[in-house]
Amino acid sequence: MLGLKENSRLKRALAVCIAIAILLAGSNVWLFIRAASAEAHLDALRWEHSRLIAEYNDLGNRYSELRSTCEALKTSYDLLQSEHAALQGEHASLEVSYQNLQSEYSSFRSRYDELRQNYESLKGDYQALLDQYNTLVAEVAEYEALQQDYASLQTEYQNLQKQYDALKKQYDDLFSDYNLLKEFFDRPLSNKRIPTLNQLLSWLGSDPTNTIGYYYPDFVCKDFAVMLSIRARTQYWDMGVVAIWGYKRDTHESYAHTINAIIITEGLVYVEPQNDHVWWYTEDHIEIRTGLFEIDNTWVYVEKIKVVLTYR
Predict the structure, then answer these.
(1) Which of 312, 310, 311, 303 is nearest to 244 (CA)?
(2) Which domains does the chain have, with CATH numbers?
(3) DSSP letter assigned to residue 77
(4) Which of 225, 240, 257, 260 has a beta carbon 3.0–4.6 Å from 271's, enabling a disulfide?
């Protein structure tokens, strides 16, 4: 609308100028110059008009943009207002929740203090129980050690019991022959008999002397030999006891041993009372003397020999 009014004004001005120019054109050059000046001014006005129109249009576009921006801001503002109202409501709700939480915190704090006191009390009880537990562990370890000692003693007792039973049996066997042996030991041997080799071997197989255990120093080789000699008297046999000293041929270890000797129908033989081994030397059944001899499967250099109980 502003542009139309401006155009109308320009047209009237132009008309006035043209009329004046027509009136003055015929009169003088001055009018012609004025007309040219007016024409130039008109061109300037037209250019200014075009510039103003462009500026107006630019302002219109900027106005549209600003209006769109304003409307967008208005929408954003309304949205923010709505969000603000919602946040205010939420803040009020959170304030109430905060107050509730404060109340609950105070309650929990009181409960925590109470539980803390209970914890300290339980901690003291736990330490006391731990001390008792450690004491019990030590007692259990001591008990287990005692159990091991008991088991060891039990095993030792059982072994001793077995040894006792064996000794008891040996004692009973010895005691059963005691009166008979005493009778033949206290008086000279009468009605002496000379056995054969088979009779000797058969009797040794039934005689229990070799079953007695070797217990140093209470029952050693000399005791075996003396006992077998006494028991041989019950058969009216004159069995001697021979002690030998020397050293072993292979190891040169010292050697000291006691065996039995008896004259049988075949001649002189020797007996190892601990295993009933019987042997003799050469076809002539010679006696052991100083020198190298095999005694119960061991080669010995005999240095000294002593007949403790005679066999002749």
Answers:
(1) 303
(2) 191-309 (3.30.460)
(3) H
(4) 260
Whole-number Å distance between alpha carbons of 201 and 264:
11
Instruction: Give the Cα-Cα-Cα angle 240, 267, 256 (nearest 5 degrees).
Output: 40
pLDDT tens digit string along 191-236? Answer: 899 999 999 999 999 999 999 999 998 899 999 999 999 999 999 9
Q: What angle do CA 216, 311, 282 make, to 5 degrees?
A: 95
Q: How confident is the chain (312 residues) per 10-residue block, as mean pLDDT?
A: 67 76 66 79 88 90 90 90 90 89 87 89 90 91 90 89 75 55 60 95 96 91 95 94 97 97 97 97 95 96 95 84
SS3 266: coil
- For residue 164, what are its two tokens? 């006792």
Report d(CA 60, CA 42) in Å as an integer: 26
Q: Look up residue 214 and give its DSSP letter.
A: P
* Cα-to-chain-centroid distance, residue 34: 123
Pull the structure tokens for residue 146.
């005692």
Q: pTM (2 decimals)? A: 0.46
Q: How many Å apart are CA 311 and CA 297, to the nearest integer?
A: 22
Q: What residues are paired with 302 via a beta bridge?
A: 246, 291
Residues whose CB falls within 8 Å of the CB of residue 37, separated by 6 or more in sequence, listed in order: none
N residues, the chain: 312
**Residue 208, pLDDT score:** 94
Do 309 and 226 form a contact (C-beta atoms < 8 A)? yes
Residue 294, CB half-sphere, CA atoms under 13 Å: how many?
A: 7
Number of alpha carbons in the 13 Å side-chain half-sphere of residue 129? 6
Instruction: Give the residues across from 242 on adjacent strands.
Output: 259, 307
Cα-trace Rg, the chain: 73
